[in-house]
Amino acid sequence: MYEYFPGNYRWSFAVHNTLRCGGQMGEIDRALRPLLEADSPSAADWGEAWAGAGDEQSRLGEADLARGFEISAGERFLRSSVYYIAAERQMPHGDRRSEIYQLSLETFQRGVKLAGLPWERVEIDSPDGILPAMFLPADGPGPHPTMIFFDGFDITKEIMSLTVRDSLKRRGISCLVVDSPGVGEPLRLRNVPSRPDYEVPAGAFIDYLETRDDVDPDRIGVMGISLGGYYAPRAAAFEPRIKCVVAWGAILDWGATWQKRWATRSTEVSVPLDQLMWVLQKDTMEEALERVKEWTLVDVLPRITQPALVMHGENDRQIPLDDAYKAFELISSTDKELKIFTLADGGAEHCHSDEPAGAINYVSDWAAEKLRS
């Protein structure tokens, strides 16, 4: 993986994530070069650098809008949202972080509207309260097959909508990109923690999709990226209405993974380690490490009988490749596939952020094969 910040995995990985959802290298370099040249840049410095990139694109978007260039302005606002969320994900908790998150939401919605994207914000009733999502429709009246797309540990529906964009749509599949317990708006605005029994929010999402005339209720799949590689398989194991499942980055025993991370104080994690306390809404790391033991798929994966795809990077430094092999072997489905993205072919890092295009197309082709047949 190219490291914009040599020796700093976390910040370099974040640069790749931003490129994946539409960031432009020149804009990024203009914002981050002062950090690269500074002696000891802090997390606060990081946040302000990215926020500056978001401010710049918002200002330029306003200039485009003043000239009547709505689509150009919309694309600017979408990139502004990407840069604001890149800032927020690494910043210290506090009012400034909350302010920047709000800016990311506002610029995203404005960008979607001005750019003419046919995406619909929806709010779904669940046992955890309202769960917001973006519905990315396939073309035509339908009913269409639909994939539910779960975020990971530190990402949001805005980031993932801009990652998948029209990849599924072009294959005749709609996508419901969700902020579920422990991520996005539920975590940031209402302090809703993650939960191990993710079949519960998954069930609420399916209940909602079944009310839509443009969704085929007999062709609903689920996929999840990063920690979503726990959420999606857990949901599929206990929710029979799910017809296929993708772990976009394998998870086997997330609790065991966290014990190792904390013991070594790993720096090869995409956000600061104390995010675990926030996601689980625990006051101490000891409490969080005890709670996270419940996030294991060892006894769950054998329950999966639907078509299943596990994708993993050969050089994933956050989740060991061996976990992907073990997870795949435990799945009971007779229609299952393990796709390893290698160093030679690209996309070998965690969730293929180093070269994402191949993975995005691969998962979209696989979903089309399973849901449109």
Automatic annotation (TrEMBL):
<dbReference type="InterPro" id="IPR001375">
    <property type="entry name" value="Peptidase_S9_cat"/>
</dbReference>
<protein>
    <submittedName>
        <fullName>Prolyl oligopeptidase family serine peptidase</fullName>
    </submittedName>
</protein>
<dbReference type="InterPro" id="IPR050261">
    <property type="entry name" value="FrsA_esterase"/>
</dbReference>
<comment type="similarity">
    <text>Belongs to the AB hydrolase superfamily.</text>
</comment>
<feature type="domain" description="Peptidase S9 prolyl oligopeptidase catalytic">
    <location>
        <begin position="204"/>
        <end position="347"/>
    </location>
</feature>
<dbReference type="InterPro" id="IPR029058">
    <property type="entry name" value="AB_hydrolase_fold"/>
</dbReference>
<dbReference type="Pfam" id="PF00326">
    <property type="entry name" value="Peptidase_S9"/>
</dbReference>
